[in-house]
Structure formats: C-alpha cells, structure tokens
Automatic annotation (TrEMBL):
PROSITE patterns: FH2. SUPFAM superfamilies: Formin homology 2 domain (FH2 domain). Gene3D superfamilies: Formin, FH2 domain. Coiled coil: none annotated. Pfam families: FH2. This is FH2 domain-containing protein. Residues 1-124 form the FH2 domain. Signal peptide: none annotated.
C-alpha cells in the first residue's frame, strides 16, 4: 500500500502561484535590462551586473517556461483525476481531494489489518 500522506501537503494553487511569480520576476528583470540598454553609458561606467543578468535570463527563461508548461499539465491532469473519482474540480480544492484519498487509504489499511487478524484467529 502506498503512503499518500505527503499528497495532502501538496498545494497546486501555491505551486502555480510560485511559478507565476517566477515568471513575473523574470519579466521584471527583462524590463529593467531593456531600460538599462536605453541609457547611455560612458566608457568609464562598467556595468557587469547587466551582462550577468542577461546571461541569467538566457539560462532561467527556458527553465521557467518548462515549469509553466508542467504546471499547466499538472492542473489539467489534476482536474481529470478529480473528475475520475466523481468529484467536481470546480468545487473541491486539491488539498481536500487528497485528504479524502488519504483518509480512504488509511481506513482501508486499518480494515485490511483487522481482516488479516480475524482470518488468522479463525484459522487456528
């Protein structure tokens, strides 16, 4: 039997909000870099920070885009899973859904152990 207790701690809305925040922060960095490029800099001004941030954007943007894609996929699959178990994804929170699954699993495990104990005591 699987341990589903960790599923109760998963908060897809929090995950989605975090990924959206990362995307927003990247957009803000990109905007700041664009503003920085418009300003004239003298030869005496060396702005290594802007160059570093451009490199960071080049590395981080594909990762955040992958995260956005994965969260969209998770959201769609979660809705399908909730529908599969006969719940309405528009009315039940994912945390509540996983709590139901965990509760059922725990009850099933308790009942299974009781049945095994009963079977062993009858078999003697």
């Amino acid at each position: 039997m699987h341990d589903y207790s960790s599923l109760q701690k998963v908060s897809p809305p929090t995950l989605f909000a975090s990924v959206n925040a990362l995307n927003g922060h990247l957009a803000q960095i990109r905007e700041e870099l664009n503003n920085n490029q418009r300003r004239k800099t003298t030869e005496l001004q060396i702005d290594r920070f802007a160059e570093s941030m451009e490199e960071f954007i080049l590395e981080a943007e594909p990762i955040v885009n992958d995260l956005k894609s994965m969260t969209k996929d998770i959201e769609e699959k979660l809705k399908l899973l909730i529908l599969y178990y006969g719940e309405d994804p528009n009315t039940i929170k994912s945390e509540e859904f996983f709590d139901i699954i965990s509760s059922f699993s725990n009850s099933f495990e308790v009942r299974k152990k009781a049945d095994i104990y009963l079977y062993k005591s009858i078999s003697k």
